[in-house]
Amino acid sequence: MNGAESLVRTLVKGGVEVCFANPGTSEMHFVGALDRVEGMRCVLGLFEGVCSGAADGYYRMTDKPASTLLHLGPGLANAAANLHNAKKAGSGVVNIVGEHALYHIKYDTPLTADIEGIARPFSHWVKTSPTSKTVAGDGALAIQAANVAPGQIATLILPADTAWGEAEGVADTPAAPAAEKPSKEAVVAAAKALKKPNSMLFIGGRALRARGLELAGKIAAKTGCKVQGAGGTARIERGAGRIPVLRLHFVIEQAQAQLKGTQQMVLCGAKAPFAFFAYPGKPSVLTPDGCETTVLCPVEGDILGSLEALAMELDAMNEKAAGVAQPSRPERPTGKFTLDGLGQALGATMPEGAIVVDESVTTGRGFFPFSAGAPPHDWLNNMGGSIGFGAPVAVGAAVACPDRKVICMIGDGSSMYTIQSLWTMARENLDVCVMIFSNRSYNILYSQLADVGAANPGPRAIDMLTLDRPTLQFTDLAKGMGVAAGKATNLEELTKQLTYAMSHKGPYLIDVIM
Amino acid sequence: MNGAESLVRTLVKGGVEVCFANPGTSEMHFVGALDRVEGMRCVLGLFEGVCSGAADGYYRMTDKPASTLLHLGPGLANAAANLHNAKKAGSGVVNIVGEHALYHIKYDTPLTADIEGIARPFSHWVKTSPTSKTVAGDGALAIQAANVAPGQIATLILPADTAWGEAEGVADTPAAPAAEKPSKEAVVAAAKALKKPNSMLFIGGRALRARGLELAGKIAAKTGCKVQGAGGTARIERGAGRIPVLRLHFVIEQAQAQLKGTQQMVLCGAKAPFAFFAYPGKPSVLTPDGCETTVLCPVEGDILGSLEALAMELDAMNEKAAGVAQPSRPERPTGKFTLDGLGQALGATMPEGAIVVDESVTTGRGFFPFSAGAPPHDWLNNMGGSIGFGAPVAVGAAVACPDRKVICMIGDGSSMYTIQSLWTMARENLDVCVMIFSNRSYNILYSQLADVGAANPGPRAIDMLTLDRPTLQFTDLAKGMGVAAGKATNLEELTKQLTYAMSHKGPYLIDVIM
């Protein structure tokens, strides 16, 4: 058994069952080993950002890391933006990055680069395996690192000679350390804070899964606190029967309105609320003046355990959770596109078990209320702010959950960073409905230009914000990559298209021409 | 004048007249300044790798750096693979990377990342400007760094508050240090080596421009040495009236055949020949055993000055350069596609002044002889080995040389990494003919799989090398981005399509279905 095969076997034994791959020469032994090892599904991406985003989506839906297979430094760099998003989301990923044979690196040939240096800003754990006999053990350590709560980015660099040399065998993956439980003092302090007037439980991470939300609802019922979701949320379990939460708004003034009057804030699985960007004359810290903040559980802590401890401390375990969403669907909307109408179309048509991947940017900010009573579903948001997130994450979610419909909402500008995802959807026949919101601009930047004090843009500035010259034809792009597609120019057409997409398996793209 | 405007004015004053941009919120002041400053052409890319590759192509054709405008760490990461290629090619680039306001960084909001850490592996020079008053001066230093021979990557990080704060004015760019001339000893040693039997002048960088080749031809006429181009070549001036050189072959055995028998090798603007990748049982060093190597001029030295000094030392300045190519074109080829036929089709149709950007990978390795006598043209190759190079470099070359036809040859696999380039070609009406060689595979990997000793691939391995499920329809992809396109399924159709493309201004794509 060579080093590459020992690594593939170690990955499979350690629970890593999917590899999102874009390999090259230095990874050919890993590829060659795939036919000798059962249990690793290998999914090809035409661009590395598809692979890293897919691993993010896969983790969010399974709580298990996938691997990526990447070609030296530039391949890793192409994956990096979506690794950034995965890192911020607390998704575990095991990157396998090929490298030249160790003896070859000193010749500084074209593809030679500082791979560890490239990996470090996007990884919690980085190692270059030194020999074919260490590859399996290092692979096991990479899996362990990826499994550290809430999920981490581990990057294992695999020199070609360690892949082709003789290995010693397969390694067992050590368990990751358990997430830390809250101290008694933290629980008592949080309970005390929430019992005061104008208190807020500010939650993120796995507090947004159904069980966490139920506990939050019990705590709210007992104390009267508000429950508020953080701005970025990796996965919210929503819909009928669940406790609805709103995310903190991107726009500072609206976020401030959501937080207004809060005098006690208890953080569980979320950092304190900060502005996404800085703007001249606007605050970075969004917590209201004078508000006291209590940390129940940090992002990497035992979030569900903390909520349970808090509910018990408050004697709230037998409370009926406050605000459970009742089943309800909006009417099918008609007429011209409006932002609310788009949210209604989605709420009216999404099936039970849908996984909504939301990179709708400016378009979808107000969609939540229209699907609060829809059948139970998941909603995934971008935690790292790097666009080009949606379609790759949808790929990974669809690979993770083949029996569920994935609905991927993307702004036209965002979609173009990783448009190659469509090809992987077609190749794997993934059950994804992609909605492109074509407003023919980087719409968010218009408001941002004003917000940073650069208002009244001239023609050259506007040229950097518009996508209308030429107009992107997403149905042609989809066709070019083997994905069926349709256009919608009003709400009737959109609900018709959505109804069709929801009733057919496989990828389908809707160009929502706004 | 704010910091951003002081930077734009400093760039223009320092000779940086083009900005390949994909901006976001943190760059809005830079964008806002564009309308107040004359002399900066801003070209939008839908993906950052388009911008960095375009800057590379622009430098190769002008010997002047362009700037890129990128959105924080992930935007820089998306640009990195083509920055890697530009760095290896010796292209000067000034990256302007937005950053959060300095006071905002500590809140670790979604887009916060270690931007300097991301920049370092791909940059010769990295700085975060600390205040709005230092931005102009730091911008001037970045231009100076980019101008260091043969051309360097300079990355200036621009925190939003240094962009919006008040500046002190515009800065003058100091001259970069002149490239070092060769020592008298090096020139004498090189002359002595080349006068011995079985000698070779091994050249790269600007030795491959017309004047360098002419000098090499004079030296060859005088000494009888062979002249051999390096494997990677940033830009070769070729065609009738010029001294033709071959590049060193990618395949080890063929490279060894080119170098066989060489007993004296003189390096000028190129490193000694090494294998691109390491393979089990094959050498990394390609110089024949016992061959003596003499460095006349390193990659960063005064290459043309060195060749002149050498020619003078050899009393060769009045020699007639050996091997000048005579005007000749191949016949228009007919019938089924063959690799030679493709080279003939190109040689038969390329117009005078064409700029050939070559990312044809396995397809185009043998094209050179068929265009050796074509009208004078330039030929640009990938120096860094990161695919996704061709179309972005073509964008930059076309912006640099609006009166010349750019012919961009790309393998289908390679094209998909930066396919967004087509949109920029359409938007700017760039005069680029894109030929996609559709062999529906990462064809190079089949041979590589065998070369690394992983022969006889099974179905899972083969699945990682093939692009035929689904088949990419490049004419649809082009249409989706506003570029006219046609298909060619044999050599008659190809020459017809090429003839059409050469006689029309503007972008055109030919899907060469092999």
TrEMBL record, chains A, B:
Q: Which stretches make up the Thiamine pyrophosphate enzyme TPP-binding domain? A: 375-512
Q: Which organism is it from?
A: Reyranella humidisoli
Which UniProt keywords are given for this protein, alphabetically ordered?
Answer: Thiamine pyrophosphate
Give all residue intervals belonging to the Thiamine pyrophosphate enzyme N-terminal TPP-binding domain: 1-106
Q: Which InterPro entries match?
A: Thiamin_PyroP_enz_TPP-bd_dom, TPP-bd_CS, TPP_enz, TPP_enzyme_TPP-bd
Protein name, as recorded: Acetolactate synthase large subunit
Kindly give the CDD domains that the UniProt entry links to this protein.
Answer: TPP_BFDC, TPP_PYR_POX_like
Hey, which family's this protein in?
Belongs to the TPP enzyme family.
The answer to whether the entry has keyword Ribonucleoprotein is no
Name the Pfam families for this protein.
TPP_enzyme_C, TPP_enzyme_N
PANTHER family assigned: ACETOLACTATE SYNTHASE LARGE SUBUNIT ILVX-RELATED (PTHR18968:SF86), THIAMINE PYROPHOSPHATE ENZYMES (PTHR18968)
